[in-house]
Amino acid sequence: MTARAPGALDLGKLFAARLHAARARPYLATALFALRPVESRQVPTMAVDRYWRCYVFPAFVDRTALEELAAVWVHEVAHLLRDHHGRGDRVARERGLTGPAERLRMNIAADCEINDDVYGDGLVCPEDAVTPQKLGVPAGWLMEDYLRHVRLGPPLDRLGWLDCGSGADGLERAWELGPDGAHGLSEQERDAVRFRVAQGIRGAPGSAPQSWRRWAEEVFHPPQPWRQLLGSTLRSAVCAPGAGEDYHQGRPARRSAGVPKVVLPSLRRRPPRVCVVVDTSGSVSDAELGSALLEVAAICRALGGRRDLVSVLSCDAAARTVQPLCRAEGIELTGGGGTDLRTGFARALRTRPDVVVVLTDGQTPWPEARPACRTVVGLFSRAGGSYDENDPDHRPDEPPAWARVVTIGSGPG
Amino acid sequence: MTASALPVLPQLDVAETLLTLLRDSTTEPRADIQLEALTLAVAADLPVLLWGEPGIGKTAALTQLAAALDLPLTTVIASVHEPSDFSGLPVVGDDPAVQGVPMAPPDWAVRLVRAGRGLLFLDELSTAPPAVQAALLRLVLERRIGALRLPAGVRIVAAANPRSSAADGWELSPPLANRFVHLQWVHDHDVVVRGLGGTWPRAALPRLDAERLPEAVDFARRAVCAFLQARPGLVHRLPSGESRRGGAWPSPRSWEATLRLIAFATAAGSSRDVLSLLVRGTVGDGPGLELLASLDRMDLPDPESLLADPAGAVLPERGDLRQAALDGVVAAVRGRPERARWDAAWALLVRAMETGAPDVVVVPATTLASLRREDWEVPAAVERLAGVVSLSRRADEAARRSVRTAGARR
User: Fold this and answer.
1) Of A276, A363, B280, B376, which residue is least crowded by CB atoms under 10 Å?
2) Which SUPFAM superfamilies match (chain A) (predicted)?
C-alpha cells in the first residue's frame, strides 16, 4: 500500500478487515463485497444507508483493531440484509413513532437483533456492542420485540453517539449521499444480493447459525398470518361452486318477464353445511384449540348465517357426539387420549356436510380415500416433530394431498 | 328581492364552480415502475391481474394507461353482472331444433368488437360470484363473449382484491393463475399526499424502440434459455403450500410469457426494477429472482474477451460482481490452461487491484496461483500484487488473534 496522508482513510486496513469478515462468514461474502465504502467525517464510527453504501470515519479505522473492524463490517451488512430500514419505517408508521430519539431506539433494537448471535466463531465481539444482556432482556428476539423494551434513560445515555445510519433505522441523515448519489444499489440489485445470500445459506445450511437460517427461509416468503389464511381457505372451500351461492338456469329469473325469449338464470343460495372436527387428544393444548375454534365459528356464522348448519365434533381415539353450533356459547369438547381422526371423519361424513374442517396437530392416521366433500385442515405447528419413546424414529403421516392445509400458530397471528 | 326568494339554480352554479376548483390540479413527472410494468405487459398482450385493496387508484392508473396507448377504455364491474352477460344470453328463437339457440352478447361487447380496438378493464373480479368468475375467465383466456370473438386490438386487464381481504373465497386455481401476469398494486404514501394537495404524478410511459427489436428478442432468448439450461428443475414447478396458492408459478407457458416480457422491457429500455416486477409476477418470486440474478451474471464481461485484452478490460464497479467476473476469468484459464492465458489473467488481477478494492482479488489470485504448471515462470506482474498478499496476511493474522481472544474469554 502506498503511504497515505495523515487523517486519510486507511483503506488497506478496512479491506483486510472485510477479507477477514468474508473468510469468517463465507455465506455473507457476496453482501460484504457489494458494500461500497465511503469516507465520511460526520459518522461516529461506521454506518450504512439503504443504498448499500458504507460510511466510514477514518479515525475510527485507525483506533480500532482489525478483527473488531471485521465484526463491524458484518454488523453493518446484517442491518441491510435484515431490511432494518424498511422494517423501521413500517414500525414507525404502525406505532406512530416520530423523531430522532425513536430512531435511536430503533437502532438499538436492531443492534440487539444482530448482536445476540452474530459474533463468536472467528469473529470477536466489539467491547461496546449493544447486546440484549446489557439491556436485561432475553436474546433471540426480533427488532420489533426489542423495541418495546428499549427505554432511553440513564443506562443507555452513553449510547447517544450510536448511529448505524439510515440503513439501520430508515431515517435519512444529512450526510448521506441519498438515492441519486454515486454507487448506490437499485431496489432490484438489493433484492438480488439478498437473494444470493439467502440461497447460499439455504444451500449449505450447516455453516450458518440458526438466526441466519431462519432469515434465509423467510426473507422472500414471510410466514403467513394464519388467521387470515385459515379464513380465506375456509371461505373458498365453502363458497366454491356447488357449495354455496351460485347461478342456476333450472328456474328462470324474475327479470325474465321483461325480456321475453331470453332465458335468464336466477341466483339460488344454498348455504353449505360445515362440520368441524376437533382433535381433543392430549397433545393439543386448550389455548390452541380455543383460538382456532373461535375463528372457525366466526367464519362459519358469517358465511351461512344459519348456525344450525354448522356442527362441531370432538374426536380423540373415538368420535364423540356431534353438536350443533346453536349452543355456541358452550361447545363441550371432551377427550384427552390418543388420536385416530379416521373415526372422526367417518362420523362427520354421516352428517352429509359440504365442508369438513379438521383442527389437529397432525399426529394421527388419515383416511385412505378422499372424502366426498371439501376438507380444510388446520394444523397446529409442532416444531421438531413428534417424539414417541417406544419408537424414536416414528414420524407422523403428513396430511393427505386432497386436503387444504393451513398451519396454525406459525408466524404473526 | 329577498334572500329566501333567490332561485335555486345559482346555488348549484356556485357549487359547480367550487367543484371545478377542487378538480383543478397539476401534474409533475415522476417515475412509476408499477405503471411502467403494467404498460409493458399490456403492450405484450398478456392478461394482467392487478392485486390491490379497493380504492387505491387502480382505475386512475388504467385511465392513464388507456390514454398512453391511445385505446378507448371500457370498464366492466364484474360483481354487478350475471354469468350470461359474459357467456352470452340464450335467446330462444322460433324453431330451436333447427336454428339452435344463439348466445347473444351484451351491448358493450358488440361496441368493442365494432371498434376493433380498446382496453377492457374487468374490475372487482374478486367480489363476483363463482359462476360469474368462471364466465369471465373464459372471456380473458379465450377472448370469447357468447358468439363474439374479441379482435386482436383489444387488451384485457383484470383487478382483484388480495385473498386476505376478499369478502368471498375468490382464488385462482393453479392453471388459471399460470396464465396471468400478477402485479401487486400498492399506493405510494407521498404520491397520495401530494396528489390531494393538487399535484398528481405524470409517468413517462415506456416507448418501444423499433430499432432495438431484433436485439431485444435475441437478448430475451439467450437470457431465458441460458437460465433454464442451468436450472432444469425450474421449468415446471407447481406451487406447494396454502400460502402460495393463486399466485404466479413457473411452467413452460409462463416462461414463454417471461421471454416475451424481457424482450418488451429490453426494447423499451426499461430498468431492471420494472423487469423484476414483471418476471416475479409471471413465474413467481423465487424463480424470478434467480432469473434476475442470472441476468446480472449475463451482464458480466465475457472472460475470453477480458483475457484477450487485459490492458483495455473494463471490470464491473460493484465488488461482488467484480469478484464474480474475476472468478469467471480464472475458471476460463482452468478450462484451457495455457501459458499466455495464465499471464493475461495475472495482468487482469493487477488491473483489478489498481482500479478497485483489493480484497476481492485475493480469492481469484489464490486460485490462479494454484493453476501454475512447473515450467511456467511467475510473471513480473505478480510483484505488483504484493499489496494483495499483505492484505491477505493481515486478515490471516486477525483471524488467528480472534481465535486466541475467543479462547482467552472462554
Assistant:
1) B376
2) vWA-like
Nearest chain A Cα to B162, which residue?
A232
CB contact under 8 A, A16 and B362: no
For residue A350, the distance in angstroms to the closest alpha carbon of chain B comes to 26
Does residue A394 carry a pLDDT above 60? no
* pLDDT, mean of residues A253-271: 65
pLDDT digits (tens, 9 = 90+) for A177-216: 888 777 888 888 888 888 888 888 887 767 777 778 878 7
- Average pLDDT of chain B to the nearest whole number: 84
Q: Which residue has the higher pLDDT, B226 or A297?
A: B226
Contacts of B166 in chain A (CB under 8 A): 232, 235
Which chain A residues are Cβ-neighbours of B405 within 8 angstroms? Answer: 67, 124
Per-residue confidence at A99, pLDDT binned at 50, 70, 90? confident
Using the Cα atoms of residue B40, residue B44, residue B49 and residue B55 in order, give the sign of their dihedral: positive
- DSSP for residue B385: G
Q: Could you name the CATH architecture of A226-382+392-408?
A: 3-Layer(aba) Sandwich (3.40)
Cβ–Cβ under 8 Å, residues B325 and B301: yes
- The answer to whether the Cβ–Cβ distance between A221 and B243 falls below 8 Å is yes
**Cα–Cα distance between B99 and B91 in angstroms, integer?**
11
pLDDT per position as a tens digit, A47-87: 999 899 999 999 999 988 888 899 999 999 999 998 898 88
pLDDT at A245 over 70: no
**Is 90 exceeded by the pLDDT of residue B55?**
no
Q: Is A220 exposed, middle or buried (0-12, 13-18, 19+ CB in 10 A)?
A: middle
In total, the C-beta contacts within 8 angstroms joining chain A to chain B are: 189
| CA B122/CA B173 separation, integer angstroms | 18
**CA–CA dist A327, A307 (Å, integer):** 9
Q: What is the edge-to-edge ordering of all strands in the sheet holding B181-184?
A: B73-77, B117-123, B153-160, B48-51, B181-184
Spatial neighbors of A104 by CB under 8 A, at least 6 apart, are A152, A159, A160, A162, A163, A169
A67 to B93: CB separation less than 8 angstroms, yes or no: no
- Nearest CB neighbour to A15, from listed B170, B321, B391: B391
CB contact under 8 A, B271 and A232: no
pLDDT of residue A244: 46
The residue in chain B having the minimum alpha-carbon distance to the alpha carbon of residue A194 is B289
DSSP string, A8-40: S--HHHHHHHHHHHHHH-GGGHHHHHH-EEEE-
Look at strands A274-279 and A310-315 and give their pairing. Answer: parallel
User: Does residue A66 belong to the interface with chain B, where contact is any CB pair within 8 Å?
Assistant: yes
Report the C-alpha gap between B248 and B181 in whole angstroms. 7
Mean local confidence (pLDDT), A11-17: 91
Residue in A11, A192, A404 nearest the CB of B242: A404
Contact, A408 vs A378, CB < 8 A?
yes
| Cβ neighbours of B115 (radius 10 Å) | 14
Q: Do A66 and B272 touch (CB under 8 A)?
A: no
A51: left (phi over 0), alpha (psi -120 to 50) or beta: alpha
Per-domain residue ranges of chain A: 11-220, 226-382+392-408
Do A120 and B406 count as a contact with CB atoms less than 8 A apart? Answer: yes
pLDDT tens profile A79-95: 999 889 888 888 888 88
Sheet of A46-48, strands arranged across:
A36-39, A53-56, A46-48
Which of A17, A410, A4, A1 lies closest to A224 in space, CA to CA? A410
Predicted confidence at residue B241, as pLDDT, reads 67
In this structure, what DSSP letter does residue B205 have?
-
- Angle, helices B272-283 vs B33-43, to 10°: value is 60
The verdict on a CB contact (< 8 Å) between B170 and A236 is: yes
CA-based nearest distance A203→chain B, Å: 14
pLDDT of residue A263: 67
